[in-house]
TrEMBL record:
Cellular compartments annotated: Cytoplasm
Gene expressing this chain: murB
Signal peptide span: none
Protein name as annotated: UDP-N-acetylenolpyruvoylglucosamine reductase
GO biological processes: cell division; cell wall organization; peptidoglycan biosynthetic process; regulation of cell shape
Reaction catalysis annotation: UDP-N-acetyl-alpha-D-muramate + NADP(+) = UDP-N-acetyl-3-O-(1-carboxyvinyl)-alpha-D-glucosamine + NADPH + H(+)
Names of the cofactor(s): FAD
Sorted UniProt keywords: Cell cycle, Cell division, Cell shape, Cell wall biogenesis/degradation, Cytoplasm, FAD, Flavoprotein, NADP, Oxidoreductase, Peptidoglycan synthesis
Length: 306
């Protein structure tokens, strides 16, 4: 077990103390409003700080977790030991010619809006995805027939040794809701998207239509982790859950949405344990009724409460 005081002093030599929080409630920072505390919650302001933090974690053998806004993540009630890195300060978005360059902490929705401002087409599908650029690359986020691998050119990452590395979209091995970022231990710092010139009215019309579909069908009035399950071959997860008469089922404060069966919402101050128990109940029920295995799209990390 690492010495927390020594690690705190070492971190203080790498970054400003105001960007180091101890025993920080993660539910305050995550889209799902779930999760216990982090031993160290770090919000660096430069790429060099990220590199030094990774090197420090390696040298001191401190557990290390990268966190986005948690729109596709459940952190268990026991929280996360060691260092939790949050890149909310990396939110710049810029445009050059037919490319958009966005830092990993920027909302992918904001990137799609910047593309609209620049009259560039290709990111319309992302106008309703509630995640960061880093998270979007991590899971090759997609919606309404588009996905990140369609538009990503390359990105810059910090690898597990603390080196700044350029990786092409091909090198990320992007597939359905998957990349190799997790396996490699990379931390995405920024991404470059290659788009095509379009007509402002046409791009806006598509985005308005997709926004309407999202707002009318998805339970945006409550915190959630988005679509909980991957689409099983030959089926739709939401339809299977709906046909299993699970909508409205609740465990504690977590509920299978009555608006969209593919979502589980944090309706009343749910715990992560409530959420996880309900997910497992849905999987078990659908398996028994239709003999279909529902695979989670949402990630679950952290420790169980003591």
């Amino acid at each position: 077990m690492y010495n927390k005081e020594i690690v705190y002093q070492e971190l203080s030599n790498v970054m400003k103390k105001e960007n180091i929080k101890r025993d920080e409630p993660l539910r305050d920072h995550l889209y799902t409003r779930l999760g216990g505390n982090a031993d160290f919650f770090l919000t660096p302001t430069t790429y060099e700080e990220v590199q030094e933090i990774v090197k420090l974690a390696n040298k001191s053998d401190v557990p290390f977790t990268l966190l986005g806004n948690g729109s596709n993540l459940i952190v268990k009630d026991g929280g996360i030991r060691g260092i939790v890195l949050h890149l909310k300060n990396f939110s710049d978005i810029s445009a050059t010619d037919q490319q958009i360059v966005a830092q990993s902490g920027a909302a992918i929705i904001d990137v799609s809006r910047r593309a609209l401002d620049e009259t560039l087409s290709g990111l319309e599908f992302a106008c309703g995805i509630p995640g960061t650029v880093g998270g979007a690359l991590f899971m090759n986020a997609g919606a309404y027939g588009g996905e990140i691998k369609d538009v990503l050119d390359y990105c810059y990452v910090v690898d597990r040794e603390g080196n700044l590395v350029k990786r092409t979209a091909l090198e990320l091995e992007l597939d359905y809701r998957h990349s190799n970022i997790s396996e490699k231990g990379d931390i995405v710092l920024e991404a470059t998207f290659s788009l095509k010139p379009g007509d402002h009215k046409d791009i806006k019309a598509v985005m308005d239509d997709l926004t309407f579909k999202r707002e009318s069908k998805q339970p945006l009035e409550y915190p959630s982790c988005g679509s909980v399950f991957k689409r099983p071959p030959g089926y739709f997860a939401g339809k299977l859950i709906q046909d299993s008469e699970l909508q409205g089922t609740n465990f504690g404060g977590a509920e299978v949405s009555t608006k969209h069966a593919g979502f589980i919402v944090n309706k009343d101050n749910a715990s992560a344990s409530d959420y996880i128990a309900l997910i497992e109940h849905v999987q078990k029920t659908v398996k028994e009724k239709f003999d279909v295995e529902l695979e989670r799209e949402v990630r679950i990390i952290g420790e169980d409460p003591q």
